[in-house]
Amino acid sequence: MLSYLSLTKPFDQNKYVERFDQLYEKMAQAGFTWATLYENYEDHQYMTDSLLQVPYSMHQEIIDATRAVEDIYKKTFEMIRRNPNTIHRLGIPIMLWDLLLEDNSTRFSYFTRYDFIASQNGLKVIEANTDTPVGLVETAIAQRILAMEHQVANPHEKIDQLLKEAWEQIIKDYHMRSTDTLYITAANWHEEDKQTASYLMKHFPQQATYIPLEDIVVTKDGVFTPEGQTITYLYRLYPLEYFLNEKSDTGESIGEQFLVHVMNRKLMLFNPPAALLMQSKAIMALITEKKRDWYTRSEQEVIERYFLRTYDEQAGLFSYVKKPVLGREGGGIQIVENNAILDEDIDHYQEQAMVYQDYFPMPDQTIDTWDGPYTGKLLIGSHTLNGVPAGLFFRVGEYITGNLSMFVGYTIIK
């Protein structure tokens, strides 16, 4: 368990709530507006003002692992392109296969988050969020404010610059002109996605405009704003596969028409469609299966060190995590240890193909909350921007890390 700093030691609930309210206002003014979440008819605390103390050696190991895992994902992406028949293994809707395989993007993802478990038994990546990763606002804005409150150095001082450089690479890769507009979209009702889109837009070095997903107009001729302006470049904080279910008021499949325009390159998407290819958790099973066929000796060593064995079938495992291949926010996951179910969600994604991953326990971590000290399970997200490690995203929650797991900032100690 990592040690942590508290702004209210010894713990006093009234003082804690008072300080939290003050901190909430600072966060909201800066663009982080979901320090509390309303769900199941009550408010939940999403952010703690505790600050984890992360040893420098551990921090460096996570950064090194992030680079190594990113390289394995890049190699896997290349191998899938050379072996397109493997796409049937990934649990992706058939209607998207041609779009994903014909995507000739330079990178499969410019904005990615890898999730790691770190314990005394080592460091393991459990999945990659390559399509629509979130957590950047926490990593950039909330982390900065927490560091200021605790009067410690902010480990993420370069994240804004790295984001700008990622956008500049996109401009270069897609030959965007200075007169072109990047439209940025998210579901307007979803506060986290909307504010994340706003943060990304602020660092785009050319002209950018936010458009609510609900306002995008799709016709047979193209994709437009409500005013009739053509949308050619679009950053979408909306899962690609969700478009398959988008219908007009008259029942037309406007989502499918939208994807046709992407395939015909009338519309350029960021992250590119290939990001969904690598989002599938079945990628981990493919890496396990093809370890000796697709990868060099040094790459195999990286896989053995940082990747958990993952399979398409349960195949005699006694301790495993069962995951829907395109599940999100912990939905549909089942955790089994020694044939006993530790936790499960059966309300989401049960119709999807599943993978079975070796169970690697998350370490316990205590943080302060408005109800008092809370001990949960620690998960580490590690962002990359254009493939470059850009910041860590710590969360503490239950066995299944869902959307109510609490964000916690950190500082590096020698």
TrEMBL record:
Pfam families: GSP_synth. Keywords: ATP-binding, Ligase, Magnesium, Metal-binding, Nucleotide-binding. InterPro entries: GSPS_pre-ATP-grasp-like_dom, PreATP-grasp_dom_sf. It comes from the Bacteria. Residues 25-412 form the Glutathionylspermidine synthase pre-ATP-grasp-like domain. This is Glutathionylspermidine synthase family protein. The lineage of its organism: Bacteria, Bacillati, Bacillota, Bacilli, Bacillales.
